[in-house]
Amino acid sequence: MDDLPPLRDVIARHGIRAVKGLGQNFLLDLNVTDRIARSAGDLSGVTVVEIGPGPGGLTRSLLAARARKVVAIERDERCLPALEEIAARYPGRLDIVSGDALKIDYRSLAEGPFRIVANLPYNVATPLLIGWLREEPWPPAYLSLTLMFQREVAERIVAAPGSKAYGRLAVLAGWRAEADILFDLSPRAFSPPPKVVSSVIHVAPRTEPLPCDAAALERVVGAAFGQRRKMLRQSLKSLGGDPAVLLAAADITPTQRAEEIDVAGFVGLANAFSRRGDA
């Protein structure tokens, strides 16, 4: 792929040890990182934003896949020298941003639309996804998200109504995007190996999602799934007021449960909640 040293040598030379508190599990197999890069689509001439590159395995694959530029956001300063070596190998094509991905203004990172591709640190993966799904204005600046999660979290993102994994994440993702699990990765692909299987998912933003206030939707969904297996007329009481009014406005039977309601139904509830004036 390139003439850079093997990742294990890079990690040893720079003394980079995965830190549990940072949610780090490094991908060292470049065949795997190449597969992730390919799954993001044609990157020719595209800017890619990568979160948590670590020693740069996926970074190298994204550059080899002819991304116009990679903007790598890394919080761990120990990894910066390894990334600088990659930047020297690909002059002008790798921008390294030292900082917290949860506090970054992503629209300021690239000129024009970009793709986000990342082996996300487990401890910030879900908050990052929710932030990207809540972005305003919509459609977002990013063209797509190709992300790695724990398999259990990935299943919750793509879950359909009626399934055991269906809940808050599935509703928020289904409202504004189409999400699919692409493939799984064994713990053996990482260093150190995590105790769970990981999954790569692809998230494509909907151009025109159903009109809804994100904050209202989150409150309604949080209340509805806060008491799973209870009827909505009971679980929505935490919102205050008479749940029957909200349910009638959304044309939902009061005896239904949250796991039975599709995204359109939750959007109807959120819009009714917004009209009530206390969302």
**Ends: how far apart?**
52 Å
Strand order of the largest sheet: 4-3-2-5-6-9-7
> How many separate helices?
11
Number of strands: 9
Q: Describe the sheet with the most strands.
A: 7 strands, mixed
Broad structural category: alpha/beta
pLDDT below 50 for ≥5 consecutive residues: which ranges? none
Strand content: 15-25%
Shape: elongated
Average pLDDT: 93
Q: What helical percentage do the residues reach? A: 25-40%
Topology pattern, helix = H, strand = E: HEHEHEHEEHEHHEEEHHHH
* CA gyration radius, whole angstroms: 21 Å
What does this structure look like?
The chain is an alpha/beta fold. It is built from eleven helices and nine strands. It has helices at residues 7-14, 30-39, 57-64, 80-89, 125-133, 151-158, 168-176, 214-226, 232-235, 243-249, 263-276, and strands at residues 26-27, 47-51, 69-74, 94-98, 114-118, 142-150, 177-185, 190-191, 198-205. It has a seven-stranded mixed β-sheet with strand order 4-3-2-5-6-9-7, with helices on both faces. A two-stranded antiparallel ribbon has the order 1-8. Helix 7 (168-176) crosses helix 11.
What layout of secondary structure does this protein have?
Layout: H1 7-14, E1 26-27, H2 30-39, E2 47-51, H3 57-64, E3 69-74, H4 80-89, E4 94-98, E5 114-118, H5 125-133, E6 142-150, H6 151-158, H7 168-176, E7 177-185, E8 190-191, E9 198-205, H8 214-226, H9 232-235, H10 243-249, H11 263-276
Helix pairs in contact: 2-3, 7-11, 8-11, 10-11
